[in-house]
Amino acid sequence: MQALLEQHIKEALNSLHQVNLENVEFQATRKEFEGDVTVVIFPMLRQVKTNPVALGEAIGSYLVENVDVVERFNVVKGFLNLVINDTFFLQQFKEIKDDAHFGFVKSTEESPSIMVEYSSPNTNKPLHLGHVRNNLLGYAVAEILKAAGNTVFKTQIINDRGIHICKSMLAWQKYGNGETPQTTGLKGDKLVGNYYVKFDQEYKAQVAELQKHGKTEDDAKVEAPLLLEAKKMLLQWEAGDEEVVSLWKKMNQWVYDGFEITYKNLGVDFDKNYYESDTYLLGKEVVQEGLEKDVFFKKEDGSVWIDLTEEGLDEKIVLRSDGTAVYMTQDIGTAIQRVKDYAINGLVYTVGNEQDYHFKVLFLILKKLGYEWANHLYHLSYGMVDLPSGKMKSREGTVVDADELMQEMTKTAQTISEDLGKLEGYTQDEKEELYETIGLGALKYYILKVDPRKRILFNPEESVDFQGNTGPFIQYTYARIQSILRKANFDYGQDVVDYTLDPKEKEVMKQLQLFPEVIQQAATQHSPALIANYTYDLVKEFNSFYQNVSILGTDVEIEKVFRVQLAKTVAQTLKNAFGLLGIQVPERM
RNA sequence: GGUUGCAUAGCUCAGUUGGAUAGAGCACCUGCCUUCUAAGCAGGCGGUCCCAGGUUCGAAUCCUGGUGCAAUCACCA
After folding, report:
1. Ranges for the DALR anticodon binding domain (predicted)?
2. Which nucleotides of strand B lie within 7 A of protein CB?
């Protein structure tokens, strides 16, 4: 449509002023003026020396005369507002309503293939609010990339080895008395997490004790027997000590069982899991190759580094002097492995912004190693979720637990639903499912609607809203439309061609038309927030229509048909958009 | 100290090719359920777009400098 107008505007300028216009600037017409599309005249003044209002009038007249879809126009200052006729809108709408996945681009053989990494938990503690943001973002971005026409694989790398795991293991061995998830009734990840906290408590006590006996704080921290034991355990693990490895396997399995439940409740999934215990040695070979290619250099003590001073960064270590791998080594190896496994040409890492530097370096290294795909790596960096009391720390138990949070939200949804009492006829199971849909909808929307880069301050005391710009508000609109559709017991399948649009109807249609563009934008910017805010705008327009225009109450048959179609299309779009965010929509609420 | 990100109404946030009088929600105040679900709609109140310069016909948006907050700059992951 803009392309069509652009062409005619260029023609207009050519015939009026003998000027070849390079570009035409459009924007949506502001509500307070009449019109559907606005042409900004100002930029043209560079090429045509004249009064903007006069030029606008001239172009407007030309368009009305020569272009069918332009019905009228008005000029305000340098803005040419065009009124597009109803026939055009109705034609567009026909395409939207008949397309169950309007706005989605199907991926093909030639589509870019992208892997999205998210979640990537440690196996020594349960998931908390920070992971929730990570999971929601990663999942949503994966879905959005898919909808924008990419082939997408979802993955996580499970951080299942290292000193932190040994801490939980050791504490369980020492103080656990053989407790298991079965004997305690605790979720496995919770049980293991408790021992991580336990370790920290005992460790701190030992440090304090040592300090009492004259040690400095730094010495005490290094010499505490518990820490020494944990380190020893890590060495035993690396050496393949049978007892340690079997304990490790047992406790990790507990954690995986726990995670599975959390993921399921959260509604996220993965196509492939990578385990750090498998990949942590992967990068070493590559480092060797890099040494030969002089991408890396070796210091006298044997450690291997890369010099990034030319790029304005520092030197960075990629292999320890004892030959063992660091975080970076592993990430280099894992990236290469993934490209081999899936023939992908891009990777999205959903990781908090505290690791901005790490990923900057990682991407640079891969580029220097000469991998073409290194140009398509993206760090989806998001702000931390902080509590009013400050940062969340698992060790100190000051976290908002993911499972408890979801439960809390579901409970709140239940309370509100029961107060409103609109669910007569629903079975207990149906009700519970609905509470979950609404509670999680509120939580997910709350987190996803803000720009990923911004940090979120989460106050558990003030519950997440269920009114206004929230998930439930949008779900409610969907449910209301479903209610209308249940009552619309007549055939509304025919195409509406000859019809005069109500202004409210037109606004809703304009909003619907934006969806494909919003998906593409959300994909390029890796921002689910754009989808969330789009659904809100759409719902606002629809509700205004709903409250001001009767859908089923009109006597005019064609009005009824068209309005039901419009409502249905809005519902469909909402469902699809929320699907991208991993949020479900209810039939009633 | 260097680097990166953020700063918009009392609070939470939109505002992305630079455009018209900077928009929503929450909170507070009005009105609207004998008609399709009031988790809604219509309206009111509320602004030094962190500050100072610059570019431009035009700046919340771009540039420079500063202030504040956060993260980061490990042979931890």
Report:
1. 474-589
2. 2-7, 12-17, 19-21, 24-27, 35-42, 57-58, 70-77
